[in-house]
Specification:
Layout lengths: L1 E2 L20 E2 L2 E2 H11 L4 E6 L3 H8 L8 E6 L6 H13 L4 E5 L2 E3 L14 E6 L11 E3 L2 E3 L7 E8 L15 H9 L3 E5 L4 E3 L3 H9 L8
Parallel strand pairs: 1-4, 1-6, 4-5, 8-12
Antiparallel strand pairs: 2-3, 6-11, 7-13, 8-11, 9-10
Length: about 220
């Protein structure tokens, strides 16, 4: 699942007329980098959630065939459903097996095929070194176990593998993902790994500009 329903307030005025996932990064839509990377990893079925300017994303991506995947869309109401609610709403399209979730406003060279979830875990997160705009991080990592206590912390990359059971018994509607992750930590069922490769949260005009000006190798090049 690629998360693409957000309004992109910090990227205004660009996102007043273009949905955030369709902003160009080095000549192609940001979300296209993910779809191509997922196809290289062997993924063939992708769900994309939509809210703000969802029709523009549908028109731009179509059925996904040009990227080597088959795309289905999960439509959300105006204002979207936050990450937790968006994933939960898409569960009928995602099926009963563990599934990969990728935040649509990130840019990374992570090989998605390397990710896996352990048998007892409800979710497995990719954590990255804290960027300048998020210096306090989100979670700790003790071996493969994600923690929420004191100590060195890392930032959740917006990439993870989830089991549908993580969302079981939660009322439908709009809700964040974080409380579910904290409950999984408390149950000892949240694992993670650190990734030190390329990762950018494309959340502001400045970061988008810097990303487009960077001359380093592109993912998939």
């Amino acid at each position: 699942m690629v998360l693409a329903a957000g309004r992109g307030e910090r990227l205004r005025p660009l996102t007043d007329h273009t949905p955030k996932p369709m902003l160009l990064v080095r000549g192609k839509p940001l979300i296209a980098w993910h779809l191509e990377a997922l196809a290289r990893a062997g993924v063939r079925e992708v769900v994309i959630n939509l809210s703000w300017m969802g029709d523009s994303i549908r028109q731009g991506l179509g059925d996904g065939a040009r990227y080597g995947v088959r795309v289905q869309y999960s439509q959300e109401p105006p204002g979207a459903l936050e990450v937790g609610g968006g994933i939960a709403t898409a569960l009928p399209l995602l099926g009963s097996a563990p599934f990969l979730v990728v935040n649509g406003d990130t840019f990374t060279d992570l090989e998605f095929s390397s990710l896996a979830i352990e048998s007892g875990a409800l979710a497995h997160l990719v954590l990255v070194p804290n960027p300048e705009h998020h210096v306090h991080g989100d979670f700790g990592l003790n071996g493969r176990a994600v923690s929420d206590g004191p100590g060195t912390r890392l930032t959740y990359s917006g990439i993870g593998v989830f089991r549908p059971e993580l969302f079981a018994n939660h009322p439908p509607g709009r809700f964040p993902l974080l409380p579910l992750l904290r409950a999984a930590i408390a149950a000892g069922r949240l694992t993670g790994e650190r990734y030190d490769g390329r990762w950018t949260d494309v959340g502001t005009v400045q970061r988008l500009t810097m990303l487009n000006e960077t001359q380093a190798d592109q993912p998939g090049s």
